[in-house]
Amino acid sequence: MKNSGFLILTALSALTLASTANGQQLRDVVRQVDPSVVVVKTVEKNVLPVPQSMFVSSPGLGSGVLIAEGRILTAAHVVQAADKIEVEFVDGQVAPAKVIASMPRADVAMLQLDWVPHNAVPARLGNSDKMQVGDDVFIIGAPYGIGHSLSVGHLSARRPANVSFGPIKLEMFQTDAAVNKGNSGGPMFNMAGEVVGVVSYILSQSGGFEGLSFAVTVNVAQKLLINAKGFWSGIDGVILSNEWVRIFNIPQPAGLLVQRIADNSPASRIGLIGGSYRSTIAGMDLLTGGDIILSVGGISVVADGSTTLKMIEYLNSVKPGDTMTLKVLRAGQITELAAVAPPR
Length: 344
Prior knowledge:
alpha+beta, globular, Thrombin, subunit H, Pdz3 Domain, 6-stranded antiparallel beta barrel, 3 domains
C-alpha cells in the first residue's frame, strides 16, 4: 500500500509538472504572437427592416493577423462590402486598410495597410497540411469587441468542404477552441506560434459558442489569395440555384444575387446595384431588388464555384484602359454592363 501511495503521488507530481510546463510554453508563445493579431473595424451600408427601406451605415467587427509587408489576413465576410476599414494593433495604434484580394466562397481576404506601425510584428505561416486531429491549437481575436482574447482547444476534425476552385479544394479545420462574434478572421495558431487557420464561422443554436468552430486552412488561403491573387470585387452576394432560379426567374442554372456594394470598388465603378429591400423568402433573410449577375467576361456563374478561378484570371488579365463586361438580370431584363478598368 505504501508503494502504491508513493506511485500515485509520483504520477500526480509528474502530471502537475507537465501541466505547468505546457502552461509556461503557451504563455511564452502567446506573448510572442499577440502583437501580430489585430482588430478589424469596418463601416458598411445596410438596410433597415422598416416599411419603407432605409439605408444606414453600420459598424462591423472582426479580427485578423499581420503576415508580411503590411498585409492582413482576415475573413472575407468581415470586409467584402466594407466602405471603410481600420485595423487596430495591440498597442492601440490604428491604421487605415483596403482589400487587395478576396475569395468570398472560401471566406478569406487580404488587406493592405496604408502604413505599418514601426513595432508591428508579422506572424509566421505554418503548414496546415501537417496538422493532425488532436493537436493543440489556440485562437486570439476580439470576441464581442474584447480585443486580444485567448481561447485554447484542439483540432477536432479536418472537414473537406463541397467547394472547389479549379484544382484547389476548400478544407476547414473544426475546433473546440471558443469562437464568438468578433473572432471572425482571427488566426488559429499551432503550439509553435505559426498561423494554421483563419477563423470563419461557428455552428450554434443559441447564437453563441457551443463547441463547434471552423477555420479555413492557411494553405488554402495562401493558394487562393497569394498564388491565385484573388480579385476583390466589392460585392457581397448570394449564389442562387435550384428552386431559387425559378423564384427569381433566372434564365440560366445559377446567378449571383447582389446584396451590398462597397464604395469605390470595381463593382461600384461598373454600375452594379445592390439590394434595397429586406426580404425573408423560405426562411432565408435576403436583400432583394438588386442585380443578379449572370456572367463576368463571358464566363457564366455556376452554383459550385468551379468557374471562380476563371473569372479571377479574366479580371486579373484586364489592363488599365481595357473594358470590363458583365451581364446581369435587372428588373426582369438582361442588361450588359461595361466599364473601363482604372489604373491599379
